[in-house]
Design goal:
The complex is a heterodimer of chains A (311) and B (1024). With 311 residues, chain A is an alpha/beta fold. Helices cover 32% and strands 18% of the residues of chain A. In chain A, strands 2-1-3-4-11-10-9-6-7 form a nine-stranded mixed β-sheet, sandwiched between helices. In chain A, strands 5-8 form a two-stranded antiparallel ribbon. In chain A, a hairpin with a 5-residue loop joins β10 (238-242) and β11 (248-251). Chain A is globular and about 60 Å long. Among the domains of chain B are: 6-169, Mth169, Chain: A (2-Layer Sandwich), CATH 3.30.1280.10; 192-279 and 450-620, Alpha-Beta Complex (Phosphoribosyl-aminoimidazole Synthetase, Chain A, domain 2), CATH 3.90.650. Chain B is built from 32 helices and 42 strands. The chains are: A alpha/beta (311), B alpha+beta (1024). Chain B: It catalyses: N(2)-formyl-N(1)-(5-phospho-beta-D-ribosyl)glycinamide + L-glutamine + ATP + H2O = 2-formamido-N(1)-(5-O-phospho-beta-D-ribosyl)acetamidine + L-glutamate + ADP + phosphate + H(+).
């Protein structure tokens, strides 16, 4: 059930990955789809452009044990409307990961994801995927017990909106996904992106740990609560969160929709000003960052293999 | 059907979620605001609550766990179990539930969550959980006011069950009865000996929508000796069954058969005295014209036209590996009675056309929509059954939002046209582009092949009474007695699952072919597919139902949504069934194809229908229609000449048909899939309107497609030929503006164009009493088609698919509201490199501004005249030869990268285009209009076709002027100061700050109505 045009090619790819899993090979990204998820193709394109292998699988393939997340380096929850988002964004999918038993011993996919993170691997959720991670309690996970601590709900405007925003990276954030990035322009496309933090203690703890890794900023570069620069009225003007380890990262805006410079609404004027500018979109850097980080990490963990390859 | 039976009530639980104190109740607040704004009712505070009725055996603990862990958000919600109570400070309530069988995606989602929590295989295809909304109102409003809020703001009584009352009297609940079997009754309808009047009466009562001649043909078929013998030997009654008449009515409906486009038309031009007979509009003007275009294309090595007019959508070749599939349809009648349901089923239904073209399994690339509404600020008396244009606008907009966004298909392009004559029936055009590999598992993807013995599989949603008679209902005028069953609600999530399944099934070679279940349901889909093999046997008892009580004929013609009919070879059944289970898509084997020439429908072995396929598909009598063209009397008005047109321009920018649609556009996801290169609004401000969308096909190449729409109904009041020609040209020039090229200019260049025509006209069949001007209306249609043929030939652009909707009238209280004859041309063209797309907005100060093309004294039907309450006579005309020459040169200029910005001139003419091109960054322009002999107002506001406003970098001016010659008129330069100055004959005639112009445009009635305001002159708190 690999969701790609070249079904056969992907089967081969999966087998090849299994063969190559012991070597210092390419970074392997697993991208979930099915049940209303709909940004899996651009998500996969982002990883491929960043030099990784990207495999799109239907969620049921993972739930039914045909694909193991542990064969991959980074687990990805794309945007979309999982199960129609009728009970609140991401709720039904989060519920499935938490409760649906994937084997007779009562294990759930959430148990596997906890193990995956404990193994030092990475999880990325965008838009609906971010909502899933928040509703599961994987973000911000201040308490470390994967219990929902904050929520994402209806935009203050009461409307779904597609518009471009500017984000600033919190310098206190430790996540490798955002390394070296200061500002980022990206589209938001959501109706339920307003972060609600229920109390001052949680808010303070998030800020103290720098987990509010991305904020909406205005034309002057200041964090803002004002519409439309802050499109949803999020608490802390916050567009994205990490967990304390920095391995789990989620955001409402869509970096995977800005892979080419030509995705930006002002691309034509900007290229006139600067014809030699890169054709890459700013959103791609997040994927290049994590691919580089994992590559570097595995290289330092297995220097012998790396050397062998170079020879 | 209400839930009073003690036996079922025992297993019923109610979960109520309310927002915790301090959480913002946006839903409740919007109800209070809307009641005040639209109905003038003061509700006081409104509190919203979500209700879930669970009809599944649960222990107390399971119920509590389900409510608190699955449904409630611990940050936001308080939970109440099994109590339906108000709160002290609220006097009245409104409860919004759904009628039986109405799509309840929220209930289905809750059921999914319950199955996961319990780890039980809870059948999600049978409804156990019913979602509802409860609103508590502070003020003690009388029941009539509560009903108004309920029916006009919160629900539609055709699909919702609405309870209202005082909280003190107890809150009444309602839950429909789920599950169950069919009512296996097939009745016989005798036609023998019925008089003409009786036949017509029968047709009207049963919504067959067949005329007398057609009813007679049906009667004669059944009376024929041959038919009688066949029926006897097959065990059928002598008289037709209810199901047989329904199948014939559906198959012969105008919606499915296009009888008026196939009719013989006697046409007379009273001005010239010309008389002619047209043997089918479709054949003469559309099919033959495209055949001629194809001949010219192939003669020049351009063989990209793969499939035209013969499947659910047209297909053209992008490159050796893939096809582009393109379809545009209308969903007008359903949108008139339930705007949300009509629009969402329109867009989802249209998605199914490219999805189920050929073998099926195309990948959807984008949606478009073009909408025609009455004035949303209408404040007069509505007719019985007529919905307010504002309500239709808001409902349709929401339907397109959910239909597109939740399917993950970007809505990249659209238009909204306002005219009071759309206040009865709105027009809702939905378009979808898709990409399909040339081959699936070694077979040509665009072919539909079926052999006897292949299985008929129904995939997707279950069947209810929803949408019964949709095909026939849309083929008649609307009146106040519109049937409730004609309404459907789409479920984008159900369709997304089916779509994901179809993609994979096709790529694995499991599908022989597929089609969509749209208008006419199984009757239409199986009936049409059976034409390929030569017959089919359908076993209706196998069809899964949403609820009990459907009769066999209802099952067969129901238009319940999100269903595909698949053709599967018997040897592949096991594999496809397993895939369906894995992807949670319900597949049902409902019969098989034959080659015996009959459509044979059974229920539990008993005959329900058995019809000769040839009679069914070819037996409809040909219509003979009368058309007579008289040129309407019209005169040019006297409008006093002004010395300054700044105020006129400002007013035009804020007028209903020109103002910004940003509030609508931003609620559509126009960039999911990450491939949209030219979006509806661009520039640093995100407020520069564009002419055509540009979308790349994938991430591996820069090939893409430009998408445009041409529609100009108001010109049709002057001359329908010029209206149609202008609409065609508008769509072509929009694609030229973004950097597209005309087809077939160079041998084998492979630049495909694929166009859909969609005609929406009022009843054009002459009747001395009920439709006295029918001949003139039909003559307009003829002239529209003649223009289409001429345009197609001139540009060498082929039509690949299309649709006609012939009865766009609304009748109630003795009044008829008819749409103006309208045609939409929806165009797509290949872009070899999307990076070379040209956007409309100014790019840099000191760039030189040019007007391309010729301006004529053509203010007839213009927005400028409309502003003065005038209409005029001089309708803009297209000179195809000149237009083609200009477009060819613009293509050459783009090859040399000479053009920095390009905007096509349309509503409001040059002046409006000048203003719009400044909206992207805040540039200005200094422009001097030449002495052309035309009056100033004509130069500024004439809507002559085939014109552009373009800018060129100073260093490219020489090359550009050499190339374009006299076709380019140098007007001035782009300035950095944000001031638009237009001078003429030594005087300043427009002088405006472009930020103020943008504010006038942004704060126009559309954004105002939908609650989005410009940031430039309103505080932010207003828009929150």
């Amino acid at each position: 059930m690999v969701q790609d045009s070249a079904q056969g090619a992907h089967k081969v790819q999966l087998e090849a990955q299994a063969d190559a899993s012991g070597s210092a090979g390419t970074v392997r990204a697993l991208i979930l789809t099915g049940f209303g998820i709909n940004c899996e193709e651009e998500f996969a394109a982002a990883y491929r452009l960043a030099g990784a292998d990207a495999t799109i699988v239907h969620l049921n393939q993972v739930l039914h044990g045909q694909v193991s997340i542990h064969d991959f380096d980074v687990l990805n929850f794309p945007g979309g409307f999982s199960f129609g988002d009728d009970l609140g964004s991401g709720v039904v999918l989060a519920n499935k990961l938490r409760y649906r038993q994937t084997s007779t011993d009562g294990r759930t996919l959430l148990d596997d994801i906890k193990q995956f993170i404990a193994d030092g691997k990475f999880v990325l959720g965008i838009c609906n995927g971010f909502q899933v991670l928040v509703k599961l309690g994987l973000l911000p996970n201040l308490g470390g017990d994967v219990t929902p601590e904050v929520t994402l709900t209806h935009n203050a405007s009461g409307r779904y909106e597609d518009r471009w925003v500017t984000l600033r990276v919190n310098p206190a954030s430790n996540t490798p996904f955002l390394k070296g990035i200061d500002k980022l322009e990206v589209p938001v496309r959501h109706g339920e992106g307003r972060l609600v933090i229920p109390n001052d203690a949680t808010r303070a703890a998030i800020e103290a740990a720098g987990l509010n890794c991305l904020s909406y900023i205005d034309a002057n570069g200041d964090g803002t609560s004002e519409y439309p620069h802050n499109p949803n009225g999020a608490d802390l003007n916050c567009a994205g969160l990490t967990d304390p380890t920095g391995q789990v990262f989620g955001l409402m805006p869509h970096p995977e929709a800005f892979l080419a410079a030509y995705n930006h609404p002002d691309w034509a004027r900007r290229r006139r000003q600067n014809p030699g500018a890169s054709e890459e979109g700013e959103g791609l850097q997040i994927f290049k960052n994590i691919v580089a980080h994992i590559t570097q990490k595995s290289a330092s963990a297995a220097p012998a293999v790396q050397l062998a390859n170079q020879n | 059907m209400s839930d009073t039976n003690p036996n079922t009530a025992q297993a019923t639980h109610t979960i109520q979620l309310t927002l915790k104190a301090g959480q913002h109740d946006g839903d409740g607040q919007r109800v209070a605001e809307a009641a005040a704004r639209h109905l003038g009712l003061a509700t006081g505070r409104v509190r919203s609550a979500a209700l879930y009725t669970v009809r599944y055996p649960l222990s107390e603990t399971q119920l509590r766990d389900f409510a608190t862990r699955c449904l409630a958000d611990p940050v936001l919600h308080d939970v109440r179990l099994n109590e339906l109570t108000g709160a002290a400070e609220f006097a009245t309530y409104i409860l919004v539930a759904r009628r039986p069988g109405v799509t309840d995606d929220e209930g289905t989602s809750a059921q999914n969550a319950l199955a996961d929590l319990l780890n039980e295989p809870l059948d999600v295809h049978t409804q156990h959980i019913f979602s509802k909304k409860l609103y508590l109102l502070e003020n003690d409003l009388p029941e009539t006011d509560l009903r108004r809020i309920a029916e006009e703001l919160l629900g539609n009584k055709l699909i919702n069950w609405l309870e209202v009352g005082r909280v003190a009297d107890g809150i009444r609940d309602y839950t429909p009865r789920p599950g169950g079997g069919a009512e296996a009754i097939t009745e016989v309808v005798s036609l023998t000996g019925l008089s003409g009047a009786e036949l017509l009466q029968l047709s009207k009562e049963n919504i067959y929508a067949l005329n007398l001649e057609e009813m007679r043909a049906v009667r004669d078929y059944f009376a024929a000796v041959e038919t009688q013998e066949e029926r006897k030997s097959a065990g059928l009654p002598a008289d037709p069954t209810d199901c047989e008449l329904e199948i014939i009515a559906q198959t012969w409906s105008e919606h499915c058969k296009h009888k008026e486009f196939a009719a013989v038309i006697n046409y007379k031009d009273t001005e010239t005295g010309e008389e002619k007979q047209i043997d089918s509009l479709f054949k003469t003007y559309i099919k033959n014209a495209t055949s001629e275009v194809d001949r010219q294309l192939r003669a020049n090595g351009n063989d990209w036209l793969i499939k035209v007019f013969s499947d659910n959508a047209g297909a053209v070749r992008i490159n050796p590996d893939s096809l582009f599939v393109w379809k545009v349809e209308t969903h007008n009648s359903p949108s008139a009675i339930d705007p949300y349901g009509g629009a969402i089923t329109g867009i989802l239904g249209n998605n199914r056309d490219p999805l189920a073209t050929g073998i099926g399994g195309a990948r959807l690339l984008f949606n478009t929509n073009v909408l025609c509404f009455g004035n949303p600020e209408f404040d007069g008396q509505l007719l019985t059954g007529q919905l307010h244009p504002r309500r239709i606008l808001e409902g349709v907009r929401k339907g397109i939002e959910d239909g597109g966004n939740k399917s993950g298909v970007p809505t990249v392009n659209g238009a909204i046209v306002f005219d009071d004559r759309y206040a009865g029936k709105p027009l809702v055009y939905c378009g979808t582009g898709a990409v399909m590999p040339m081959q699936f598992a070694g077979l040509d993807s665009w072919e539909k092949k079926i052999d006897a013995g292949d299985r008929i599989i129904m995939a997707g949603g279950r069947v209810g009474k929803d949408g019964i008679h949709g095909a026939t209902f849309s083929s008649i005028e609307l009146d106040e007695t519109a049937p409730a069953t004609a309404v459907q609600i789409g479920s984008p999530i159900t369709q997304k699952l089916a779509m994901d399944f179809l993609l994979l099934a096709a790529r694995r070679g499991l599908l022989k072919c597929s089609t969509d279940n749209g208008a006419g349901g199984l009757s239409s889909s199986v009936g049409e597919l059976a034409g390929i093999s030569g017959g089919a046997v359908v076993e209706l008892e196998r069809v899964p139902l949403k609820y009990p009580g459907l009769r066999p004929w209802e099952i067969f013609v129901s238009e319940s949504q999100e269903r595909f009919t698949l053709v599967v070879e018997p040897g592949k059944m096991a594999e496809i069934t397993a895939l369906g289970q894995e992807m949670e898509v319900e597949l049902t084997d409902i019969g098989y194809f034959t080659s015996d020439g009959f459509l044979d429908v059974r229920f539990d072995g008993a005959p329900v229908a058995r019809l000769n396929m040839e009679f069914l598909h070819e037996g409809v009598p040909r219509k003979i229609l009368e058309a007579e063209w008289t040129k309407p009397a019209a005169a040019e008005p006297e409008i006093p000449t002004a010395t300054d047109y700044t105020e006129t321009l400002t007013q035009l920018l804020g007028s209903l048909n020109i103002c910004s649609r940003e509030s609508v556009i931003r609620q559509y996801d126009h960039e999911v899939k990450g491939r949209t290169i030219v979006k509806p609004l661009m520039g640093a401000t995100g407020q520069a309107p564009q002419d055509a969308a540009v979308v790349r096909f994938n991430f591996e190449s820069w090939e893409g497609v430009a998408v445009s729409n041409g529609i100009l109904p108001r010109y049709g009041d002057l001359d329908a030929y010029d209206m149609s020609a202008g609409s065609f040209d508008e769509a072509v020039r929009q694609i030229i503006a973004v950097g597209g090229k005309l087809p077939n200019l160079t041998p084998g260049d492979g630049i495909f164009w694929s166009v859909n025509d969609n005609f929406c006209v009022p009843d054009s069949v002459y009747d001395p009493a009920s439709n006295p001007d029918g001949k003139q209306k039909l003559a307009k249609l003829v002239r529209m088609c003649e223009a289409l043929r001429d345009a197609t030939a001139a540009y060498c652009i082929p039509l690949t698919s299309g649709k006609d909707s012939m009865k766009n009238d609304f009748k109630a209280d003795g009044v008829k509201i008819s749409v103006p004859p309208t045609v939409l041309y929806s165009m797509t063209a290949k872009m070899e490199d999307v990076r070379r797309a040209v956007t409309s907005d100014f790019k840099q100060a000191d760039d030189v501004v040019y007007l391309l093309g010729e301006t004529h004294d053509e203010l007839g039907g213009s927005e400028f005249y409309a502003l003065h309450g005038q209409f005029g006579a001089n309708v803009p005309k297209v000179d195809f030869a000149k237009a083609k020459a200009l477009y060819t040169l613009i293509g050459q200029a783009n090859d040399q990268n000479l053009i920095q910005s390009c905007h096509d001139l349309s509503d409001g003419g040059l002046a409006v285009a000048l203003a719009e091109t400044t909206f992207g960054y805040g540039y200005g322009a200094m422009v001097e209009l030449p002495e052309t002999g035309l009056p100033l107002a004509t130069q500024l506001f004439s809507e002559s076709h085939s014109r552009f406003l373009a800018t060129v970098a100073p260093e490219d001016v020489v090359a550009f002027e050499q190339l374009l010659g006299e076709r380019a008129t140098r007007l001035g330069i782009v300035t950095a100061d944000g001031e638009l100055t237009v001078r003429h004959a030594g005087k300043t005639v427009i002088s405006a700050n472009t930020t103020a112009l943008r504010a006038a445009w942004t704060n126009g009635p559309v954004n105002h109505l939908l609650g989005v305001f410009s940031n430039d002159n309103l505080s932010h708190s207003n828009s929150l």
